[in-house]
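call fold(seq) -> tokens
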Amino acid sequence: MSIRLGKRLRSLLATGTLTAGLLGGAVAVAPSAAAWTYLGHCSGGQTISYTATSSQLIKVPVIRYDGLNNVRCWMDYGSTGNGVKVLQLALKSCYGRSIAVDGEFGPATRDALKYAQTQEGITVDGQYGEQGFRNLKWARYTQDGTRNGCASYSF
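ret:
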């Protein structure tokens, strides 16, 4: 999947990156649904604050892009890697699905994702993307790394 970024989108990305850097964040988050452009396959995971005022963190899938981790990535059947592991952890611990956390997006992960999509009232297609990031529940952690329930990202 190849995506070409226009001048305006690159400008928006630069602004978001600068803002994240000034706020001490290491993850660029899309400012609005209209500006969401997939940057590629989710290749890793990172913990981020899930609200502006919370000291707790959630672990979400990310892609490395322009030197920063970015949440604007996708995964589907056949995907592999740490991004898939982060999704599988959420599906297992936050939705009670009995799946392996092995980094392989196979039939069990797809079915578990469809279940979670149904629970959250979003498009049920077994694919991970913007709706998944914005609506799924993610494994939540305290600042010292202690697992502490589940939470959704809140803008």
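The chain has one domain: 7-152.
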